[in-house]
Design goal:
By secondary structure, the chain is α/β, with parallel strands linked by helices. The protein has a single domain, classed as P-loop containing nucleotide triphosphate hydrolases (Rossmann fold, 3-Layer(aba) Sandwich). The protein is 47% helix and 17% strand. A 5-stranded parallel sheet has the order 2-6-1-7-8. Strands 3-4-5 form a 3-stranded antiparallel sheet. Helix 2 packs across helix 4 and helix 7 packs across helix 8. It starts with 5 loop residues before the first strand and ends in an 8-residue tail after the last helix. The structure holds 2'-deoxycytidine-5'-monophosphate. 2'-deoxycytidine-5'-monophosphate binds next to helix 2, helix 4 and helix 8. The site of 2'-deoxycytidine-5'-monophosphate has 14 residues, from helix 2, helix 4 and helix 8.
């Protein structure tokens, strides 16, 4: 069993962050925190209340929002004001608008506070866009996951086809490129590799291959652990 307390994983959409983070959390008995789900949950509510084009209204709506992740047998359930939105936040409508919402600093501040609040005795694996740079810059292990754009688009296409969405490769690739652009060029907490994060390119690796590689990093770094 590792003594790591916080493992932070960032990377672009489709790099495999959630699949890998879940498996690492399972292997080490840590809590898995999907921070993208939180940005999706507030975007869902903003769309539902029809305030997407009004920054002030978005900020005041989110200020009063109760965003909650519930962890059950390795699964994460997402709630907004006690309404379960676990599936609804994965819709294309939310995916299309979430980058805009997550560029707003007041909204980020609220969600970053919630994310930091998950730090506990058990240990955490968090994944997102700013975990290694802003949320937990002193995490015990910082990983930047990447994969080629074609590989990421193929993975996302398979997920969407499984949900019977009517999309093709070029459409998925274009929307990934657009989301990457917005997430990495925004002013506040853009997606970028932290100087001391370890880059893992998953393009030609299986899921197990990536999990083994990160497990090796965790286990080979045990002697360098900071006192907790
Ligand atoms: O990981 P995901 O695709 O579910 O994330 C949805 C969006 O949320 C992503 O396009 C950018 C935003 N996000 C963010 O800005 N910061 C995070 N830590 C996680 C996600």
């Amino acid at each position: 069993m590792s003594n790591f307390k916080i493992i932070a994983i960032d990377g672009p959409s489709g790099s495999g962050k959630s699949t890998i983070a879940k498996k690492i959390a399972e292997r080490y008995g840590y809590l898995y925190v999907d921070t993208g789900a939180m940005y999706r949950a507030v975007t869902y509510e903003i769309l539902k209340k029809n305030v997407i084009n009004d920054i002030e209204k978005m900020i005041s709506l989110v200020a009063d929002l109760d965003v909650e992740l519930k962890f059950e047998n390795g699964l994460t359930r997402v709630f907004v004001n006690r309404e379960e939105v676990t599936d609804a936040i994965r819709s294309s409508r939310v995916t299309e608008r979430v980058s805009e919402v997550s560029a707003i600093s007041e909204i980020r501040e609220k969600l970053v506070d919630l994310q930091r609040g998950y730090a506990n005795q058990q240990g955490l694996v968090l994944e997102g866009r700013d975990i290694t740079t802003v949320v937990f810059p002193n995490a015990d292990l910082k990983i930047f996951l990447t994969a080629s754009i074609d590989e990421r688009a193929s993975r996302r296409l398979l997920e969407l086809l499984a949900k019977e969405e009517d999309v093709d490769f070029e459409f998925v690739k274009k929307s990934l490129i657009e989301r990457d652009r917005k997430d990495s060029t925004r002013e506040i907490s853009p997606l970028k590799k932290a100087g001391d994060a370890i880059e893992v390119d998953t393009t030609n690796l299986s899921i197990e291959g990536v999990v083994d590689k990160i497990s090796l990093l965790i286990e080979s770094n045990i002697e360098n652990l900071k006192p907790s």
